[in-house]
C-alpha cells in the first residue's frame, strides 16, 4: 500500500501526473524483485530495463493522504521486451491505468530476457 | 533550453522516465503563459487543467548534462479539452515524443475553454 | 520500511540528496497520522505545517534497492513549532540524520499547535 | 531564471521543501560547468561530488509561477571539499538560503579537488 504524501501532490491539491509513474515503478520493481530480479545487482552488471513507451489514462485524481494499491501484470512478453499493465486503485475504484513497454538491455543493447523471467511469466499467465 | 541535471537522472545514468513528464510540463506551462494563461492566477480561482492521458515514446535516453529543447503544438482542441503534442529534441535528434490530453476544470468540473485559448489555437494552427 | 528505487537515485548510482527529504516527509507524515493529524483534512481547512529549516548530514550513500527505516522523534516543542529529529538507517547503520523545524500555520499565519500534539509529545517524551 | 511549475509545488500551494534542493543543484551545476567541470564527463570517469551536509533555511514560501534566481558562492574550499552558499531570490527578496558541503570523490574515495577549481575559487574570492 502506498500513501499520497505532500511531495507527491501539486498545487492543484492532487497527485502530480508524474507521480503516477513513480508509483508504477515501485510496483514494477517489487514485482521484478519477487520474480528474482535484483535490480541493483543487474544494474551493477550493466543490465537494466529501459522504458520504451508509456500509455497512461488518469481516471480520477489521487488525493493527499489517500491509500493506494498498484497491480502489475504482464500483458505481453517478447524476446527482449515486456509489456507491463498496471492499475492504481483505491479499494475497487480504478484511479489510473497504464501500459509500460520495457526493453531489456545488456551493455547498452537490447538483449534476450533472462530465462527465469520467461518462466515467471508462464507461471503468472496461468493464474490470471 | 533545458539541461539534464543529476536530480533528473537515475542509477542507469540516464534521465528517469518520469523526468520527461517534468520537462513536458515546463514547456506546456511556458506555452500557456505565452498564450495568456497565468497558471498561478487561474489555480487560485479554482481553474486548472488536469491531465487525462499521456502517450509517450522514449526513442533515445537523455544523458546527464545534455541540453534539450521541447516543442509544443496543439494537435486538437475541443470544448473543454486540449490535445498537446510535444517533442523532446537535442538539435534535430528526436529523443522522445508525447501526446498529452488535458481537460480544463473550473470548480472541480470540466468547463468550456477560455475564448482566448481558442483564438491562440486558431493562430497557432495557421503557422504550423 | 522503504526501498530505494531507480527514481530515487541519480547517475552517481546512489540516492539523490533531495530523496532523503522525501523519505523524511513520509516518516513524519506517518508519525503525525499516528498522532491524530490527518494532513489531508487539516490541509483542506487551511492548516498545515511549513518547514522552516532543515539540517541534514549524509553519512553514507543510499544504494539502489536498499531497504531503509526512518526514525522520528520530537526534539523540541514550542507554542507554534516542532523540531523533529530523524535518522535514516539500514539495520543499525546510520545513513543520514536530520533536524527539521516545522511551524504550524492556520490561514497563512503561525498558530498555536493543536492540544493533542502537545499531549502526544508529553507521551513520547516519557518513553524516550 | 527559474520558474516554479506545478510539479515543483505541493498541496499547500507552495513549492515543496525538497524542490529547493533541486533548484540549488541546478545553480551549482551551472556554476561548476562555467568553472570548467563537465559533470557528465567526470561522472563517466567515476569522479563526482557527493553532498555531505545541507543546512537550509526557508524564509518565505515559493509560489506557483514565481520567477527565481539562485546565487552561488564558495564559502570555503579545502583539499577535498567545497562549502557552497546559495540564496534563492525573487528580485531582492530572500526566499531561502543554504550551505551545502560537498566532497569530491574519485573511485569512491575523497580526493584532492582538481587544480582548476582551486584557481576558479581564487578568482571568485577576488570578486566577492
Structural description of this entry:
The structure is a homotetramer of 128-residue chains. Chain A has 128 residues and is α+β, with helices and mostly antiparallel strands. Chain A has three helices and six strands; from the N terminus they run E-H-H-E-E-E-E-E-H. Chain A has a single domain (2-124), classed as Roll (Thiol Ester Dehydrase, Chain A), CATH 3.10.129.10. Chain A has helices at 19-34, 39-44, 115-127; strands at 2-3, 47-58, 67-77, 81-90, 93-106, 109-110. In chain A, strands 1, 2, 3, 4, 5 and 6 form a six-stranded antiparallel sheet that branches. In chain A, strand 3 (67-77) and strand 4 (81-90) form a beta hairpin. The radius of gyration of chain A is 15 Å and the shape is elongated. Chains in contact: A-B, A-C, A-D, B-C, B-D, C-D. Strand 2 (47-58) of chain A pairs antiparallel with strand 2 of chain B, so a sheet runs across the interface.
Brief rundown of the structure:
The structure is a homotetramer of 128-residue chains. By secondary structure, chain A is of the alpha+beta class.
Topology:
The structure is a homotetramer of 128-residue chains.
Chain A: E1 2-3, H1 19-34, H2 39-44, E2 47-58, E3 67-77, E4 81-90, E5 93-106, E6 109-110, H3 115-127
Antiparallel strand pairs in A: 1-3, 2-5, 3-4, 4-5, 5-6
Amino acid at each position: 500500500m502506498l500513501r499520497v504524501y505532500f511531495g507527491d501532490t501539486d498545487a492543484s491539491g492532487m497527485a502530480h501526473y508524474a507521480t503516477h509513474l513513480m508509483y508504477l515503478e515501485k510496483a514494477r520493481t517489487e514485482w521484478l524483485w519477487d520474480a528474482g530480479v535484483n535490480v541493483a545487482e543487474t544494474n551493477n552488471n550493466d543490465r537494466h530495463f529501459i522504458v520504451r513507451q508509456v500509455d497512461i489514462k488518469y481516471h480520477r485524481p489521487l488525493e493527499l493522504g489517500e491509500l493506494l494499491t498498484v497491480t502489475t501484470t504482464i500483458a505481453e512478453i517478447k524476446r527482449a521486451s515486456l509489456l507491463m499493465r498496471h492499475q492504481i486503485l483505491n479499494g475497487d475504484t480504478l484511479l489510473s491505468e497504464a501500459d509500460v513497454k520495457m526493453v531489456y538491455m545488456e551493455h547498452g543493447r537490447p538483449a534476450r530476457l533472462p530465462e527465469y523471467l520467461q518462466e515467471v511469466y508462464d507461471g503468472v499467465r496461468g493464474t490470471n
